[in-house]
Specification:
The complex is a heterodimer.
Chain A lengths: L1 H12 L1 H8 L6 H11 L1 H19 L4 H5 L16 E3 L5 E3 L14 H37 L1 H16 L2 H18 L7 H6 L3 H10 L2 H15 L2 H8 L4 H9 L4 H24 L10 H8 L9 H28 L8
Antiparallel strand pairs in A: 1-2
Helix pairs in contact in A: 1-2, 3-16, 4-6, 4-16, 6-7, 6-10, 6-11, 6-14, 6-16, 8-10, 12-13, 14-15, 14-16, 15-16
Chain B lengths: L5 E12 L2 E13 L4 E5 L6 H8 L8 E10 L2 E2 L5 H7 L4 E4 L13 H12 L4 H14 L5 H4 L9 H13 L5 E5 L7 H18 L2 E6 L2 H7 L2 E6 L2 E7 H6 L4 H8 L35 H8 L6 E6 L2 E6 H5 L5 E4 L2 E3 L29
Parallel strand pairs in B: 3-8, 3-9, 6-7, 7-8
Antiparallel strand pairs in B: 1-2, 1-4, 4-5, 9-10, 10-14, 11-12, 13-14
Helix pairs in contact in B: 3-4, 3-6, 4-6, 6-7
The chains are: A mainly alpha, B alpha/beta.
Chain lengths: ~350, ~375
């Protein structure tokens, strides 16, 4: 009898389990998700496109851009259609990328201004997301984990915020913040203002209104996680609330944060355009929304290139972000695994 | 006589629900001595797990709260400690393993990171030393190649391996008491026996006490020194494992034994206890077992009619002695070292009201089974 049970015990303790596991090296959940994303050509291309946009936006922080987005290239400081070559004031004609997308109403290069628009779009996306995701995640965690009156308060807060039409609130907030800023217009721009180039009002408006969705998602997920054994186990080994929240629960909700970020980025790029169209957009620096706003009346006179350039730039970025967001959700949501 | 490691004295736990307050643990008292294994058995929903969780003060609060009693660890009342002091007790003095190994490890961290977290919480060691301790603990619980396995994520391990990791994590700080809440229920049978054997081995080596929560009488027979039987929030019987299996005194315990198939005994169908564990929101009056109790029905037939009460349960109507339906029996020492709570035990009314406590070790070592 004793021998028999020994024979049963051996495989689990020793060889068979050991062999089965050591065939592959350990891989983290993030690593698995990454592999799933880069395996599909479409999502891989989208990843490269988004990376290219990010690179361009980083390049705009170099000084070469400052001059090129303002310098008039046409003699009469007016529109010129797209052209491969440009004749400079001294009479020489060279291949000029600056003129490939035409010139705007002040004779400035649409090419450089579209590239600069990437910076505005990504500034808004990154910082508005940072604000809204941190608020959403923090409140969602607190509400779900502690429950009780904290949950009641936060639920009341996001129910109230979400019952006000979102765009209306963004517009109102952006307008208030912008007017507040223009009161201090006389002072010299601080370093922060130079970097953000008038996007602060939009960033703050979006950041403080768009946290509701993530807050709801995370609250629900934390309610589920809170009663799972590994959280009880973490308390049973003596961890405090802070460590449990940030080390055990938050990482388990990261997939929601990443997905919300990738899908939210698309709407931030679009909202910038809408706000600019309503005259609440970026005032001091080129942005896609402002370019479309600037040239909307001239469209009737046949000036199509400025609108087109900005729209195509938005279109490609949004398409890539959307596909990437879907792929991320597929890769990170365990329920969809195997379903293809 | 040695001092008990852990003493529960009249522990009562309440939960606020929308149908009023329920009490899943009522007046539970018992003691565990160093190196002893105490098993708590009972059907699902009888309050075993809540008892275990309230020792560590882990019941979700609100809605749960301890309404009364004491939990004494080496004489110190855990219920009086601050949350900070309690955190130092959890994991260090009392550790716990859970029923479901699939969900009791965090999926986003490697098993090593999780053991190291537990180690570094209670011991001042470097990360490198903590990993060494983790690997030793994993070796102790029979995991082959721990140096490599520490970097594994939980989803790559089987249920049995994960339960071993949980045990390694619980034991990494050398607790004095290990609470094992149905540690083998979710595992298949061969793995069950391995895990139990592992627990016995580790108990011998490290001399810790084990509070074993289970509904499996086979597990009790093989592992426990002393046994408490719980029914509907109360301890109904407490004795050494030999005593309890040789002569169970409470009709509920008898019913539990009858519902287990025996080797070499041919029977058409297993005897079951009629009915189900009552809902804590609607406990019956008197002895909570009387609507299901065969002994009460028998006793009623020989009792004069004025001392009998009619009981209506779904599909049946029968008589039980009035005391059973009216007075709730409390645990009394009906024989030396044997506690039970039943009015129909002969010596019950005269038996002393002592606190269940037995410094007993099983004589038969179960290795041969």
């Amino acid at each position: 009898m004793t021998e028999f049970s020994d024979q049963i015990i051996l495989p689990e303790q020793g060889q068979s389990a050991g062999v089965a596991v050591s065939l592959e090296s350990p891989r983290s959940l993030g690593g698995e998700a990454w592999r799933r994303i880069v395996r599909k050509p479409a999502t891989f291309i989208c990843l490269i496109v988004v990376a290219a946009y990010v690179c361009v936006s980083l390049l705009t922080f170099t000084p070469i851009f400052d001059k090129r987005i303002e310098e008039p290239l046409s003699a009469d400081k007016s529109y010129a259609p797209p052209a491969l070559h440009h004749t400079w004031p001294d009479g020489t004609t060279t291949l000029a990328p600056a003129c490939w997308f035409g010139l705007d109403f002040e004779g400035r290069s649409v090419f450089w201004r579209v590239l600069y628009g990437t910076r505005t779009a990504l500034l808004i996306t990154v910082f508005a997301s940072a604000i809204s995701l941190s608020i959403g995640a923090a409140l969602g965690l607190l509400a779900g984990y502690f429950g009780g009156w904290i949950d009641d308060l936060i639920t009341w807060l996001f129910s109230t915020v979400s019952s006000i039409p979102w765009l209306l609130m963004v517009i109102a907030l952006a307008w208030v913040i912008q007017n507040n800023q223009s009161l201090n217009a006389g002072a010299a721009p601080s370093r922060l203002e130079v970097i953000f180039g008038g996007t602060t009002s939009i960033i703050l408006a979006l950041g403080f209104t768009d946290w509701v969705g993530l807050c709801r998602l995370i609250r629900g997920e934390v309610l589920r996680l809170r009663d799972l054994d590994f959280v009880v186990a973490a308390r049973a080994i003596g961890l405090g609330h802070g460590r449990i929240l940030f080390r055990h629960i938050l990482p388990n909700t990261f997939h929601l944060v990443i997905i919300t970020f990738s899908l939210g980025a698309v709407s931030y790029v679009q909202v910038e355009v809408i706000l600019a169209f309503l005259g609440l957009g970026v005032t001091s620096k080129p942005s896609w929304g402002r370019m479309i706003d600037d040239s909307k009346l001239e469209l009737l006179r046949g000036v199509w290139w400025e609108v087109t350039a900005a729209t195509v730039a938005i279109f490609i970025l949004c398409l890539a972000l959307n596909i990437l967001g879907d792929a991320l959700r597929d890769a990170l949501d365990p329920k969809l695994h195997g379903a293809r | 006589m040695a001092k008990p490691l852990l003493e529960l004295r009249n522990l009562t736990v309440g939960f606020d629900t929308n149908r009023g307050e329920i009490r899943p643990v009522q007046n539970v008292s018992f003691s565990i001595f160093p190196g002893q294994t105490l098993a708590i058995v009972g059907e699902s929903g009888c309050g075993k797990s809540v008892t275990a969780l309230s020792i560590l003060r882990l019941i979700p609060s609100p809605p749960g709260k301890v309404l009364g009693g004491q939990v004494l660890l080496e004489g110190r009342d855990l219920l009086g400690l601050s949350e900070r002091e309690m955190r130092a007790v959890r994991g260090k003095d009392i550790a716990m393993i859970f029923q479901e190994p699939m969900t009791s490890l965090n999926p986003v961290f490697t098993v090593g990171e999780q053991i190291v977290e537990a180690v570094r919480l209670h011991q001042h060691v470097s990360v490198k030393q903590a990993y060494q301790i983790a690997e030793e603990a994993m070796h102790d619980v029979g995991i082959a190649d721990p140096g490599k396995r520490v970097h594994e994520y939980p989803h790559r391990l089987s249920g049995g391996m994960r339960q071993r990791i949980m045990i390694a994590m619980a034991l990494s700080c050398q607790p004095k008491l290990l609470i094992a809440d149905e540690p083998t229920t979710a595992l298949d049978v061969t793995i069950q026996s391995q895990i139990l054997e592992l627990l016995r081995k580790l108990q011998r080596e490290k001399g810790m006490s084990i509070l074993l929560i289970t509904h499996d009488l086979g597990v009790v027979a093989e592992n426990a020194d002393t046994v408490g039987v719980m029914y509907a929030s109360r301890l109904t019987e407490f004795a050494t494992v030999e005593d309890l299996f040789d002569h169970p005194l409470h009709p509920y315990t008898e019913g539990l034994f009858r519902s287990v198939p025996k080797l070499g005994q041919r029977s058409e169908r297993l005897v079951t206890i009629p009915g189900a564990v009552p809902n804590p929101a609607r406990f019956p009056s008197g002895c909570k077992f009387h609507p299901r109790c065969p002994r009460a029905r028998q006793a009623a037939s020989g009792t004069p009619a004025q001392n009998v009460v009619q009981v209506q349960v779904p599909g049946e109507k029968f008589a039980v002695p009035a005391t059973c339906a009216r007075d709730e029996p409390v645990l009394r020492e009906v024989a030396v070292g044997h506690w039970a709570a039943c009015h129909l035990i002969d010596s019950f009314a005269a038996a002393p009201l002592t606190t269940p406590s037995l410094e007993h070790r099983r004589t038969v070592i179960a290795e041969a089974i």
